[in-house]
Task: inverse folding
């Protein structure tokens, strides 16, 4: 065929391509009709599926051989390399045909193992994709650097824009931008899901019962049989503050213990008892609201007409100062505490600043474009919004979602409710970072997995405008882009330098790395501002931790991203808990807590 | 006094969709600037017409435009920063811009000559500069008439007209620098504006590195416009972005292994050292026998009104807070002349726009522009409330009359020959003769300004040698076997500087005969055919 084509005046390249395609198709037909005839007859796999698999496998083996050729050829003779790789290719082709392309087993038929096979199928596809991408990198390094650099520049630039929103124009940072709250008028309810919170429950409820607002209820949600200690404290507070605190039992019949179930039950109870309310707030068990917070929320609900008011939450424990940590028991307690404080400061400080940026800038911008995942607490919902949600979905909070707060934010945008974000330094709810790096990673994995979950639920597809949908993809996938960017920026530059890429390409590959540098610089500026705002002393070593920890932090995020993706692919949806130690509360409330990030008892 | 409490307008708008908000803002802007836009467009038509009419024949062709155009051509068609090895003589952004415009619009093919394309680019740069000068005037709180006046002064000044018709990098620097100051004076004071200012300045510096001298003035202008509420972020982002863009130039050299000085190799730092320290000084303006003083004398011979008025206006302009950075730019550009280093002869391009701005600013201050003058000793005195405005109106009227008198009396006679020149440039005629009479395989030594045409339009191969490279580029010297034709203006052989700078050319001319001749005097061109038996040494 090849000779014939060339004889008829066909260009060598075209002739070769025609020849290759023909050979491939003949090969496929021969495999199906002759070699694997019996298997194919009994298989549930369709023709086109087989055809697709066959081509993917052939392409992969071709890429493998082409990629290996320069490596093998450099150590041996080129003809040796050619023939040995031909043999290797033949073996790979045979195996892929036998076990994959023309395998007799259908993946759909055995029903009992469906879930398992489906997930491992996903995983295999992922691995295959990664391997193919790896070969593509080796073969087309320049194109790879180009694509990666451009996308990283996009991500880095948008990240910077998002995080700078508060300072974009001076008005965005005006001290009087939220107005002066007047006398509150709307009745409301604060829901406080609690589980094993003996250490902090009393203090939290006491504080919540004494906020500056004439007409509101505090509703702790407690599983009575499971957690009698906390229940006793709550009932005590209810007796102390009649007309203010009302205990809601966690539904007994629920097998699973998580936050959305409790919240839904509480709202149902409010309806049954016919308690009047115009808004519902959510607090975590250790959240000490500022006394003036409700006044402001009330005011913002009335002046902005928003369906949701999200107030600031701020992690506080950035410092490497060991005195902020409890003294561990045992030998060398002080030294161990010193070491622990210093060894963890690098990620804590970045995590603290993430919140600082998130609530001040990102959420504001996302509220402006009306696509936003919410925070889990210090968030207030207007009654009309909850009713609309109930009407639409038969439920208030999604009981199966890992990040129900993210989902409810997206749904608010879909339903056309506006979100108002308020960050006033004095009024923020102070929280703490996870106690250990492992805990931090687990928390991130949960969030990222939740975001993937929300993404695949496709509610965002119902957003009214295209720009909102694009932004939704960006917002939900953001953490993955960010992790990839942080990790790849130096890699791309190193690759460009060692690969001797064209100078222009190398310059382009420098830009994302430089933008990461700008992000670190801005973090340093922010840390100084953070210290000023909250009256915390920022020491030189905190700055050093921030700068030196910037890249390792990206590595940590990437690990979390990979783990979250793998978990999603494997279909594992059980919770990964975060443990807190109560550092931000000062000496009064030290102790462990297992917050509303509940767990599945399956 | 009663006051009406209005609800916060931005809050009400926040309720609307982003698209609707954008439309409202755009509509507001159009209404707000309609009058200025109409005025500006008529100004641009006038200035553009004056610039464009006669720009092919006047002024004479000089070497720098040819160099930059050959480099722009080389970037587009050869993907290299120069047809010869790039020697880091200037940062490359200037001809990269020319090249991009040509790539977008097929520039080198639309014109018979590369010089024509360069002229077009300069016209565009001039129009952009005029528009930006108007905007800057308005942002510095000039009246509309004042801003228009500065555009007229800048656009119609014969000295500026002459120098802005030449394809010089400085003419591309002007709009970038003006843009930087316009953005630095942004009333919104956003991060975007400050970053834009820093990036524009970086572009100016990458276009021609001499722009760096006005950095203090830009920093002053930006510092004046900072807001306490977003200052740290603005400074960090703007400063970093500007530095990053400028750093691309040394990084380029670094990645090519040409940053540090090494024997037998071009390097950025080596050239910079030569430019700053070793290049022959032109002397200080204060020394009346120096080349610089001679050069300034030539400028003043073309037009003395604007430059001197600018000098006079500096002290008055310093009275106003917002005008001070602009005045500082002018001071710095004059200081370059006084300093006593090497001064390129197109330095005047950097003086004129700022002179125009400062002159008009001074007039506005004297005429009592309330938004402008922060220094008002007379106005603050009680009782003179009626007298002062009258005095100021009279002064303003006088200033306007003076301007008109200068325009009519001095500039019109100077401008007329610039607009009416129709004679074909001798180098252009020489190019035509070469195309008609010389086989394409002959080795030509040519003036910079015709090199691109000979290569691009007429396909001379081997490519002609730019006369300057004959004695300076080792690669050219290595491959040089013979020379067939010499095509440069007569002053290359006639003046002592020419003879000293181009020894090979001078030697070749001794073994050559004139085969054609165009024009006369120093700028005329004689085409020499070199003897077949002579070999370059």
Result:
């Amino acid at each position: 065929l090849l000779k014939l084509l060339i004889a008829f005046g066909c260009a060598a390249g075209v002739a070769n391509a025609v020849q290759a395609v023909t050979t491939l198709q003949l090969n496929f037909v021969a495999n199906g009709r002759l070699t694997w005839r019996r298997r194919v007859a009994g298989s549930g796999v369709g023709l086109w599926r087989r055809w697709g698999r066959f081509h993917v496998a052939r392409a992969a083996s071709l890429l493998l051989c082409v990629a290996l050729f320069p490596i093998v050829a450099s150590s041996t003779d080129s003809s040796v390399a050619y023939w040995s790789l031909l043999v290797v290719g033949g073996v790979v082709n045979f195996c892929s045909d036998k076990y994959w392309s023309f395998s007799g087993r259908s993946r759909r038929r055995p029903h009992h193992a469906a879930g398992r096979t489906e997930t491992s199928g996903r995983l295999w596809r992922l691995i295959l994709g990664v391997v193919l991408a790896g070969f593509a990198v080796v073969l087309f390094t320049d194109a790879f650097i180009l694509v990666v650099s451009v996308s990283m520049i996009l991500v880095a630039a948008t990240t910077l824009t998002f995080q700078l929103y508060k300072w974009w124009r001076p008005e965005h940072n005006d001290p009087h931008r939220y107005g002066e709250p007047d006398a509150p008028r709307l009745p409301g309810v604060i829901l406080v899901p609690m589980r094993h919170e003996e250490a902090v429950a009393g203090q939290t409820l006491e504080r919540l019962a004494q906020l500056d607002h004439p007409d509101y209820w505090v509703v702790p949600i407690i599983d009575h049989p499971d957690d009698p200690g906390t229940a006793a404290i709550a009932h005590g507070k209810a007796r102390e503050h009649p007309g203010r605190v009302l205990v809601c039992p966690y539904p007994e019949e629920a097998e699973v213990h998580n936050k959305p179930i409790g919240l839904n039950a509480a709202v149902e109870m409010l309806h049954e008892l016919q308690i009047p309310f115009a808004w519902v707030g959510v607090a975590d068990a250790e959240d000490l609201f500022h006394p003036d917070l409700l006044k402001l929320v009330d005011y913002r609900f009335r002046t902005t007409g928003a369906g949701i008011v999200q107030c600031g939450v701020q992690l506080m424990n950035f410092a490497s100062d060991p005195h902020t940590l409890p003294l561990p028991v045992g030998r060398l307690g002080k030294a161990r505490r010193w070491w622990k404080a210093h060894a963890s400061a690098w990620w804590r400080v970045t995590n603290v600043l993430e919140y600082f940026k998130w609530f001040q800038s990102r959420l504001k911008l996302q509220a402006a474009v009306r696509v936003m995942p919410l925070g889990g607490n210090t968030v207030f919902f207007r009654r009309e919004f909850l009713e609309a949600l109930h009407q639409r979905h038969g439920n208030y909070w999604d009981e199966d979602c890992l990040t129900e707060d993210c989902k409810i934010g997206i749904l608010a945008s879909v339903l056309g409710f506006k979100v108002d974000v308020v960050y006033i330094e004095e009024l923020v709810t102070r929280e703490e970072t996870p106690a250990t790096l492992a805990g931090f990673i687990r928390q991130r994995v949960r969030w990222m997995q939740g975001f993937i979950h929300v993404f695949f639920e496709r509610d965002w597809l119902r957003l009214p405008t295209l720009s909102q949908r694009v932004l939704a993809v960006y917002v939900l996938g953001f953490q993955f882009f960010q992790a990839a960017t942080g990790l790849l920026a130096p890699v791309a530059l190193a690759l460009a330098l060692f690969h001797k890429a064209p100078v222009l390409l190398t310059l382009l590959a420098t830009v994302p790395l430089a933008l990461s540098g700008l992000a670190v610089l801005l973090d340093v500026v922010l840390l100084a501002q953070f210290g000023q705002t909250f009256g915390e002393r920022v020491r030189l070593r905190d700055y050093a931790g921030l700068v030196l920890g910037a890249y390792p932090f990206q590595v940590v995020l990437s690990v979390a991203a990979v783990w979250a993706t793998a978990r999603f692919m494997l279909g594992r949806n059980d919770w990964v808990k975060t443990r807190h130690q109560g550092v931000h509360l000062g000496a009064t409330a030290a102790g462990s807590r297992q917050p509303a990030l509940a767990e599945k008892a399956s | 006094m009663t006051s009406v409490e209005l609800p916060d307008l931005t809050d009400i708008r926040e309720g609307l969709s982003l698209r609707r908000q954008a439309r409202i803002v755009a509509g507001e802007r159009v209404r707000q600037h309609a009058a200025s836009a109409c005025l500006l467009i008529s100004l641009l038509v006038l200035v553009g017409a004056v610039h464009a009419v006669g720009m092919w024949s006047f002024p004479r062709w000089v070497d720098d435009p040819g160099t930059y155009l050959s480099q722009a051509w080389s970037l587009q068609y050869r993907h290299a920063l120069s047809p010869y090895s790039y020697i880091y003589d200037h940062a490359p952004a200037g001809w990269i811009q020319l090249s991009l415009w040509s790539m977008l619009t097929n520039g080198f093919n639309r014109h018979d000559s590369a010089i024509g394309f360069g002229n077009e680019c300069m016209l565009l740069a001039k129009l952009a500069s005029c528009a930006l000068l108007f905007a800057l005037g308005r942002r510095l709180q000039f009246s509309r008439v004042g801003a228009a006046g500065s555009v007229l002064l800048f656009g119609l000044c014969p000295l500026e007209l002459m120098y802005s018709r030449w394809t010089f990098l400085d003419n591309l620097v002007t709009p970038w620098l003006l843009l930087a100051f316009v953005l630095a004076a942004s009333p919104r004071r956003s991060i975007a504006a400050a970053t834009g200012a820093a990036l524009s300045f970086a572009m100016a510096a990458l276009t021609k590195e001499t722009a760096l001298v006005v950095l203090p003035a830009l920093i002053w202008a930006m510092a004046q416009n900072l807001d306490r509420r977003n200052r740290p972020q603005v400074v960090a982002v703007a400063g970093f972005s500007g530095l990053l863009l400028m750093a691309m130039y040394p990084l380029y050299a670094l990645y090519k292994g040409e940053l540090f000085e090494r024997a037998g190799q071009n390097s950025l730092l080596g050239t910079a050292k030569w430019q700053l320290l070793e290049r022959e000084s032109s002397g200080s303006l204060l020394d009346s026998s120096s080349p610089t003083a001679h050069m300034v004398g030539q400028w003043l011979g073309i037009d003395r009104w604007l430059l001197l008025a600018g000098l006079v206006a500096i002290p008055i302009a310093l009275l106003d807070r917002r005008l001070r950075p602009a005045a500082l730019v002018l001071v710095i550009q004059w200081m370059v002349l006084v300093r006593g280093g090497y001064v390129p002869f197109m330095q005047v391009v950097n003086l004129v726009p700022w002179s125009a701005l400062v002159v008009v600013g001074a007039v506005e201050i004297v005429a009592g522009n309330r938004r402008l003058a922060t220094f008002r000793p007379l106005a603050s005195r009680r009782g003179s409330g009626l007298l002062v405005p009258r005095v100021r109106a009279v002064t303003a009227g006088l200033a306007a009359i003076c301007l008109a008198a200068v325009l009519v009396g001095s500039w019109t006679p100077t401008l007329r020959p610039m607009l009416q020149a129709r004679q074909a440039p001798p180098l252009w005629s020489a190019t035509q003769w070469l195309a008609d009479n010389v086989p394409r395989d002959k080795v030509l030594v040519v003036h910079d300004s015709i090199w691109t045409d000979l290569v691009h339009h007429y396909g001379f191969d081997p490519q002609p040698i730019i006369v300057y490279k004959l004695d300076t580029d080792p690669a050219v010297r290595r491959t040089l076997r013979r020379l067939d034709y010499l095509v440069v203006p007569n002053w290359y052989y006639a003046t002592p500087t020419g003879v000293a700078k181009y020894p090979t050319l001078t030697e070749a001319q001794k073994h050559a005969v004139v085969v054609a001749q165009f024009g006369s005097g120093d700028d005329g061109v004689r085409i020499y055919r070199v003897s077949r038996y002579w070999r370059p040494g």
Remarks:
- The CA atoms of residues 351 and 357 of chain B lie 10 Å apart.
- The longest helix of chain B spans residues 18-52.
